[in-house]
Amino acid sequence: QVQLVESGGGLVQAGRSLRLSCAASGSIVSINAMGWYRQAPGKQRELVAGIFSDGSTNVADSVKGRFTIARDTAKNTVYLQMNSLKPEDTAVYYCNAHMIIMTNYTYLEVWGQGTLVTVSS
């Protein structure tokens, strides 16, 4: 059993900051990539930021310069530091991970349950 547990969402005023955390647990051999997606009401889920096993990152243009993704490999945890938040950042944020698990060394893509971020103007 593998799972991603997210934390850190909430209500914040525009211009303030929040940090999201996502911890992976279970029978994990290795994690190739972790990232954050978001889905606003009535919109499709979109990639916010991703980080790969070599430390390289991919950040969406809409949040570049405001959001930073980081990873603690030893803890199988990924963080999303969100600064200068805007009302349009309001969405449910989902953690995502691509990993190899111990069961037959199977490749697995896992999603978290989502955490709501609401930015008030």
Assembly type: single chain
Number of helices: 0
Distance between the termini: 40 Å
**Radius of gyration based on Cα positions:** 14 Å
How many E-type strands? 11
Structural class by SSE content: mainly beta
Largest sheet: 7 strands, mixed
- The arrangement of helices and strands along the chain is EEEEEEEEEEE
> Low-confidence runs (pLDDT<50, min 5 residues)?
none
Strand residue percentage:
over 45%
* Helical amount: under 10%
The outline comes out as elongated
The average pLDDT score comes to 96
Describe this structure in words.
With 121 residues, this protein is an all-beta fold. The protein has no helices and 11 strands. Strands 2, 4, 5, 6, 9, 10 and 11 form a 7-stranded mixed sheet that branches. Strands 1-3-8-7 form a 4-stranded antiparallel sheet, with no helix packed on it. The radius of gyration is 14 Å and the shape is elongated.
